[in-house]
User: Fold this.
Amino acid sequence: MVPMTQPSRPSFVTALQRGLKGRCPACGDGALFWRYLKVEPACHACGHDLAQYPADDGPAYFTILIVGHLIVAPILLFPFIWQAPLWLVIPATLLPLAGLTLLLLPRIKGAFIGGLYVLGVKESDAHLHSADAAD
Assistant:
């Protein structure tokens, strides 16, 4: 059994960096994911409960924002994209879009969970959200 000692809380930037690397935001040693986007229930190194952070749609929104600014916005600024044939434009834009999205999504989700960890936002705090109170 893994010892349940909780390390001291890291800084916000440190927790984000640990999450970007796919590591536990509490200790930085254990893996954050056991599959592509599936969060480990608990850290194997420190025993921290990783499943308690509600990283629902936030990482997807940030990923879309970043990918849109890195790929879509520059493409729209170049006039040659409007004159190129569709058979060339579609794969030349969709492949980088898909590749960058798949590359960034787990890293952004890890950083998002790291931020939630430092801020102390947990799934059990859902009753505090104003949208949930309206139901």
